[in-house]
Amino acid sequence: MGTAPASRDVTSYGMGLAAPLALFFLVFFVAPLLQLLWLSLHNDTAALHWGFGQYLHFLTDPFSLGVLGSTLLLGAEVTAVCLVLGFPIAWLYQRVGPRLQTIIILIVLLPLLTSVVVRTFAWIVILGRQGIINATLQSLGIIDTPLKLLYTQFGVVIALAQVQMPLMTLPLITALGRIDPNLDDASCSLGAGSWRTFFRVVLPLSLPGVIAGCTLTYAAAITAFITQSLIGGGQMLFMPMYLYQQASTLQNWPFASAISIIFLLAVLAVVSVFTTLGRMSRGYGGA
Amino acid sequence: MSGRKRTLEAISFEFVMTVIAIIALIIIIAPSLVVLIVSFTSGFSLRFPPPGYSLRWYAELWDAWQLHFAAKNSLIVALWATGLSVVLGVAAALAISRSRTLSARLLDSLFMSPLVLPALAFGLAALMLFSLVGLPVSPLTLVIGHAVVCVPYVVRNTVAALAQLEPTLLESSAVLGASRLYTFRRIVLPLIRPGIIAGAFIAFMSSFDNVPVSLFLRDAATDMLPIRMWQDLEGKLDVTIAALSSVLIIATVAMVAVMERVTGLSRRLTN
User: What is the DSSP track for A90-153?
Assistant: First the structure.
């Protein structure tokens, strides 16, 4: 440890440089979350009586459990759609020239940096009664009355899938780029067809990217409450809006805190399941 | 790929994959194009295709002082939050990037955790803490809240840039007698600058677009642009929002183009 100046490691910096941000996070991130936990363990809004009342209320209330269930289901549906649509994009990316690659990346990247409200607004225009889909179907004579697309589960899933697509596609592009192209050729020359090669070689080897993409997409989809509330409308309630209503409109902070903690735990559970799968898949890919 | 036999089976696979990829790319890009086209409508509704074209909604937007006010607030908060994130985040990235210790890895996880935790839960938590210590919500609490959720982008991009840095460069510089500060200013900083700029850019965009944290931490006088737009959309479908959305889309495209030049943004996000 720092015996002489010459022996000091000049390629790294002291941990002290992390202190300001660590302190900032301690005060403004960790402390608030601890306070959230503390408040959720009180039975009354004045926070005088300790207890698990808020959690019991949530876990025995069919309505609350329904909101949690539909939120987790929504995340799964969005993630599945993103995977099915995002994987071919990443696949195509590996087969085109550098110029097209840049174009594909920028198309994928753009929504990530465009305002979520703007992107959601676009889906209102597309899915609305006078929107593109209804106008096209009507002009083709396929339907007489406009379909109800806005304020439906289908609408929420497709809009969220578009909004979160970059989070799935970018890790997939990275993962597919790391696969040795010779493996693909080897599999084909050994007699496996393209479909078989894809499902038996390419897909398993890209699992780390699939899992990274799924984690990001899932976490983003279930917390994306702007898209959920604007496309879902008042009829569909998901966890973020439920939390906001309890906290803001009803001023029931202890219950809102309990909802937050349950929601946090749900997100953490999903992330750690995916992370574990990721670790296992890396072992598989390296074998 | 060249030696592969062009069997029907191979063609069917490539056809299906290419078609899905093209459909997916259209789904990604179409909504922005639709908004751009609808914003030039001469009518009063968001009908597509528009009955005629005009610039009337851009003229409306020019006079929409509530939106101007909200945009100004969002811009100021985003600039301060980005500045704070860069100062704190770059320093922390320098400390944790080359360290293999447990504390460095724990700090890394801590600094990244706002990315996966629901921002709305953090917003509520921060509001409760501020009210507990008697700090009223204000532009200051907004900047603090935004900085927490924006710092991960700066840390991640700076750490990635530092990982690319050749340690031998620093050793050579030290051997030649340069002080650590001099080496940092003349060698490290120029080499990691694109990474810092890319991180700062993403942090800025995510702060400018933030709703969940702003919902809890703003005061009644501080209207923020995405919240204003969200509330307008909940009430009525105003075409002015389409014009504003188009302006934001064009601004984003322009900034991404500049960032691509300056920092090679697309390579950064796929490596």
Answer: HHHHHHS-HHHHHHHHHHHHHHHHS-HHHHHHHHHHHHSTTSHHHHHHHHTTS-SS----TTSH
